[in-house]
């Protein structure tokens, strides 16, 4: 049985790729106010939410439990609208080595947008399951943030 793996989910969204990428790269703290399974986040280390040397502390619901973890940005590729994060700390460290989370904002040929989350993991023990709970969490976040972006667009046109 392999201790390493990669899992992913991709969901279509209604908001544009540019608006999604903006939220993820310039307005990440806003996610805690619109995603129901995120209970809070704060800047744990560093001066800016969106630099590679900053560390954020997240509190969220995962597999029915309130947990916390730390997150840092490994890289941002503006061209491909891809961000790579590292997740570590309480919710991660007892089961996995730091998780590598890649978020891709995909603008399809037909003009539609989708968000793809990929988690690369290495389990600490064979009895640990892959981190499927994160895929469910990210599905909820995608839906909540997409609804928020669309609502803000509607409010802006009133």
UniProtKB/TrEMBL annotation:
InterPro entries: Bet_v_I/MLP, MLP-like, START-like_dom_sf
Pfam family, one: Bet_v_1
Domain Bet v I/Major latex protein: 2-152
GO biological process: defense response
Assigned protein family: Belongs to the MLP family.
Name recorded for this polypeptide: Bet v I/Major latex protein domain-containing protein
Organism, scientific name: Vigna angularis var. angularis
